[in-house]
Amino acid sequence: MKTATDFLRGLGLPRAGSIGQAPALLGRAEIGGASFAELLGKVKAGEISSGLPVVVSKDAGIELTEDQLARLAHAADKAQAAGVTRALVELDGKWVMLDVGVREVTGIAELSEDGAALTGFDGVVKALPAPLGSGTAHAERVLSTLAPRSPDLLRMLGVAKR
């Protein structure tokens, strides 16, 4: 009759009392051919996205575009990979307060005129601009360069006010 220990040996798990083998076993854990450390490094470098969205609290006092929310989600991934729980994120010249754990924008941070310290954050992240040629950010940049040159074209596209 086989015991539980026999079954564990069959799985290649370390025996009770063989503590030295456990870290080696854990270090071999791979997902998709990459170790946990490699995956964490890729998240920190921004090469992997969680796909989790960022939402804006109803009390935050800020409205963000879909592009800005996507960029904040990317910044939240980087913050979370670094162990940050409350981040101050630079986004288009504003300082956004982000609860990383629940992925929620809680407000805009405003520095006081008297130079008082801004507290309550354990990390600072910059939300990188969207790459040129991607989505609405690119379209807005292109249209903003056309505005002074061709108001008739913008009006035909339904972008400019009449």
What can you tell me about this protein's structure?
The protein starts with a helix and ends in a 6-residue tail after the last helix. The protein has three domains: about 20-50, no CATH class; about 55-125, no CATH class; about 130-160, no CATH class. A five-stranded mixed β-sheet has the order 3-6-5-4-7, covered by helices on one side. It has a two-stranded antiparallel sheet with strand order 1-2. Helix 3 (about 35-45) packs across helix 4 (about 65-80). The chain is extended and about 80 Å long. Helices cover about 35% and strands about 15% of the residues. The mean pLDDT is about 75. It has about 160 residues and is α/β, with parallel strands linked by helices. The protein is built from six helices and seven strands, in the order ααββαβαββββαα. It has helices at about 5-10, 20-25, 35-45, 65-80, 135-145, 150-155, and strands at about 30, 35, 55, 85-90, 95-100, 105-110, 125.
Question: Which structural traits does this protein have?
Answer:
162 residues, alpha/beta, 3 domains, 6 helices, 36% helix, extended
Q: Main beta sheet, described?
A: 5 strands, mixed
- The total count of helices amounts to 6
Q: Order of strands side by side in the largest beta sheet?
A: 3-6-5-4-7
The domain tally reads 3
The helix/strand series, from N terminus to C terminus, equals HHEEHEHEEEEHH
User: If you average the pLDDT, what whole number results?
Assistant: 76
Radius of gyration: 24 Å
N-to-C CA distance: 86 Å
Helix content class: 25-40%
Question: Any low-confidence stretches, pLDDT <50, length ≥5?
Answer: none
**Overall geometry:** extended
